[in-house]
Amino acid sequence: MHTTFSRLLAGTLALAVATGATQAADLSARAPAPIPYMAPVQPYSIVSEIRIGGAVHDPGAPEGKLGNWSKVDVNGEILFAKPQVSLDPFWQAFVPRPTVGGSYSTGGRTSYAYIGGTWTVDLFPETFNRRVFLDGFFGGAAHDGYTGEKAGAPLGFNRLGCNPLFREAAALGFRITEHWSVMATVEHMSNAGLCHDNRGLTNFGGKLGYTF
Questions:
Q1: What is the pLDDT of residue 24?
Q2: pTM of the model
């Protein structure tokens, strides 16, 4: 009797082990693919993202092509969480992230601070797994550049006409991880012809972003 019981117990344990191994193999074979990164609809804090970067200072204008001063700008900006969120990606794309930032000219040319909104749209999200995106910015900027008449313009300064100016910017970005991203950027400031001079300012550069 003792021998029979031992055999039954051993058989039961062997069956359990075999069943468990089979189920584990089956679950492993059917493991779902990783979910692509998608920015949370409900932000974790009031700050959505921080970006830092640099740019070539207006290479086609007096500030960028004259003189032997540095042509490098240093830029930083803070993007805040959207004031309203939507579960519909289409309508969500129309709500911008409030943005503040600044750009410092290491060559002593025009530096400025800006405020406005940033719109972000994923490019071909299914193809690129939501990693490639396009940014657009619109707002205003206060600067320390030259706003006087053409005759009195100092050497190596753009004639910006007035202060503040409109600022538009665009970026093509790639999400390395759910937190880190890199971007190629272009930005332009002008007064839209509202002042006596409108040479404007256009910079080309790149940024590194951290999303919270």
A1: 45
A2: 0.78
Which stretches of 28-152 are assigned E, i.e. beta strand? 47-56, 72-80, 97-105, 112-122, 132-143
d(CA 212, CA 178): 9
CA distance 128 to 182: 15
Cis peptide before 164 (omega within 30 of 0): yes
**Residue range 102-151, pLDDT digits in tens:** 999 999 999 999 999 999 999 998 888 889 999 999 999 999 999 998 88
Q: Which long-range contacts (CB under 8 A, 24 or more apart) does 149-156 make?
A: 149/196, 149/197, 150/197, 155/62, 155/66, 155/67, 156/62, 156/63, 156/66, 156/67, 156/69, 156/109
